[in-house]
């Protein structure tokens, strides 16, 4: 209120009643008049604010008054900008009101146009402001400063050019203010647009990466090199050999891309503007990766996704349809039309990963449900023709268990990762079991009472189990029936995860803590294991590239397809995307680097 009152009265009010002429009749320069009036308004407002805040902060028990509370630099910077903005707005309103001219209507029209432009270019404004202000977070707390400075500059021109003439003062203020505001909006929007045109070479730190099952296309998520902060994570489809790429937007806007079996298409759901409709407002985009100039097109969906659960996508074996999986329902769409073929509700419980296409006619899905005491997974065969469901078996699992299926759907691995109970330092015990993929019948126990475990079915049908025990990490290679063929000591590591199979009979594993968001960690390494001889080749400072985190998939870290480019992708300790040659052991830096 003080800022509004002083900003309205110090210059505009005195100009309206004719008292400003007194100052210009004296040998005082215009800038001294303007600066004195402005300083008086700002200092008076600040003094009133401090006088009001001190008693309130002194009476606060939770946060007692301290000197550093009053000298908080970010808070003081924000408050100063807010005071200048309020004083400037009140001054401009007083000049416009006091002039009694038709320019007021023009001011209102220009204000509406500027606000509409600001709304239309919102994301561009944010990116541009981040670049200009060197910020690593949203610039909303600092947005008042450009407008406040424009108002102050316009008021200075008004005092210099208008002097004691109210209408001339109004014209000078309006012309200066709107020129600065529209020019600033255009400049910052242009900078924001340029920043959104991210190319793969602009990435300084690659966070996630995953390859197509065939071909050399991959998707990458990373941070842009330069002034943009860590919150800006563009997603790109990238072909390493040719350098071709497709922009997919920002990681928080879209699902991880799903590749077709031949690697020639990619699909993702993207939400341009989050609102109450949630994922039901998402659009389906299909990327054509086979053409000379890869393109991204929108496919209208016959039935939109459900609003709450983040979807996962999967192409049918022939690439002529697309499955959208959510907790509540599975929906199959025909391509390229986007027409819905059927929807399979989860009935009771919820659909969980994975979904396995058995052939061109059937898929296998898993439905989890709980009665409060027991958690069950029901194995369901769904026909692609009409979406009819045929339950074939069930198994009792823990709520935190995750499933890994063979490509044929004949066998099913269940990883039981227990939640620690009892003492705060109690260690969680994990185990892995092998089940019949159709009936869910238990075929055998693969590991019991280990500290942590990762297991999956290999391309040749064998089973790889990476387990952590008190002695360290160990890789166990089991036959199709679960009998142990070989046990390989990996060293004193507390974490181990299975990577890809670059060649038949060879397997990558990631060892040690390799945090995605903490580049520079040297504790992680990768080993390439020859499953026949047990020979280990160590690659320090790199870890298998992880696919983009997904709410439904969670931290299961699905392995890349055997022999695919994804099986040779790794992330170095400094955030670079590296391709390892399994034969020669050479490293090729694909992306990243400061």
Produce the secondary structure layout.
Elements: H1 2-17, H2 20-24, H3 30-58, H4 67-70, H5 73-99, H6 103-120, H7 122-133, H8 144-162, H9 166-196, E1 203-211, E2 217-224, E3 234-239, E4 245-250, E5 258-259, E6 265-270, E7 283-288, E8 295-299, E9 312-315, E10 321-325, E11 329-334, E12 340-345, E13 350-357, E14 362-370, E15 375-383, E16 389-396, E17 402-405, E18 411-417, E19 430-436, E20 442-450, E21 452-457, E22 463-469, E23 472-478, E24 484-491, E25 496-498, E26 506-511, E27 525-530, E28 536-540, E29 542-544, E30 569-572, E31 577-580, E32 587-591
Antiparallel strand pairs: 1-2, 2-3, 3-4, 5-6, 6-7, 7-8, 9-10, 10-11, 11-12, 13-14, 14-15, 15-16, 17-18, 18-19, 19-20, 21-22, 22-23, 23-24, 25-26, 26-27, 27-28, 29-30, 30-31, 31-32
């Amino acid at each position: 209120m003080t800022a509004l009152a002083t900003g309205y009265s110090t210059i505009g009010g005195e100009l309206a009643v004719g008292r400003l002429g007194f100052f210009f009749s004296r040998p005082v320069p215009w800038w001294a008049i303007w600066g004195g009036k402005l300083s008086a308004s700002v200092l008076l407002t600040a003094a009133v604010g401090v006088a009001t805040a001190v008693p309130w902060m002194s009476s606060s028990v939770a946060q007692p008054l301290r000197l550093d509370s009053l000298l908080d630099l970010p808070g003081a910077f924000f408050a100063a900008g807010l005071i200048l903005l309020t004083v400037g707005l009140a001054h401009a309103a007083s000049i416009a009101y006091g002039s009694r001219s038709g320019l007021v209507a023009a001011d209102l029209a220009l204000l509406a146009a500027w606000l509409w432009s600001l709304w239309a270019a919102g994301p561009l404004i944010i990116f541009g402001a981040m670049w200009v202000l060197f910020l690593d977070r949203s610039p909303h707390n600092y947005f008042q400063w450009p407008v406040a400075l424009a108002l102050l500059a316009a008021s200075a021109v008004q005092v210099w050019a208008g002097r004691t003439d109210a209408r001339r003062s109004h014209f000078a203020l309006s012309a200066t203010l709107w020129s600065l505001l529209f020019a600033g909006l255009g400049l910052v929007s242009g900078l924001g647009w340029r920043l959104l045109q991210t190319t793969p070479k602009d990435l300084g730190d690659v966070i996630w990466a995953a390859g197509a099952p065939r071909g050399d296309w991959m998707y990458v998520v990373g941070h842009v090199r330069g002034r943009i902060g860590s919150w800006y994570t563009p997603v790109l489809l990238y072909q390493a050999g040719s350098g071709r790429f497709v922009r997919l937007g920002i990681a928080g806007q879209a699902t991880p891309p799903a590749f077709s079996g031949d690697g020639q298409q990619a699909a993702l759901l993207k939400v341009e503007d989050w609102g109450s409709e949630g994922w039901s407002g998402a659009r389906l985009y299909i990327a054509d990766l086979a053409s000379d100039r890869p393109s991204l097109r929108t496919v209208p969906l016959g039935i939109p996704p459900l609003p709450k659960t983040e979807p996962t996508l999967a192409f049918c074996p022939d690439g002529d349809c697309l499955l959208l999986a959510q907790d509540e329902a599975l929906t199959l769409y025909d391509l390229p039309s986007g027409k819905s073929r059927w929807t399979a509700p989860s009935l009771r419980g919820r659909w969980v990963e994975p979904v396995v296409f058995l052939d061109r006619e059937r898929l296998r899905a898993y439905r989890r449900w709980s009665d409060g005491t027991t958690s069950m997974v029901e194995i369901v065969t769904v026909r692609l023709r009409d979406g009819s469901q045929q339950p074939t078996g069930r198994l009792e699992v823990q709520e935190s268990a995750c499933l890994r299926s063979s490509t044929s759907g004949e066998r099913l691995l269940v990883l039981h990762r227990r939640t620690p109970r009892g003492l705060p330092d109690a260690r969680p015990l994990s185990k892995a079991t092998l089940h019949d993929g159709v009936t869910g019948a238990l075929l055998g126990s693969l590991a019991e009472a280990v500290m942590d475990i990762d297991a999956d079915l290999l391309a040749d049908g064998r089973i790889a189990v990476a387990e952590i025990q008190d002695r360290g990490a160990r890789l166990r290679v089991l036959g199709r029936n679960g009998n142990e063929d070989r046990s390989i000591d990996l060293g004193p590591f507390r974490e181990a995860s299975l990577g890809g199979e670059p060649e038949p009979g060879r397997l990558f594993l990631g060892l040690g803590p390799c945090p995605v968001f903490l580049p520079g960690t040297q504790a992680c390494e990768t080993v390439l294991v020859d499953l026949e001889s047990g020979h280990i080749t160590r690659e320090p400072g790199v870890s298998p590239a992880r696919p983009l985190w997904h709410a439904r998939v969670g931290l299961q870290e699905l392995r890349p397809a055997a022999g695919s480019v994804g099986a040779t992708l790794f992330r170095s300790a400094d955030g670079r995307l590296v391709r390892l040659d399994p034969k020669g052991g050479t490293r090729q830096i694909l992306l990243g680097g400061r």
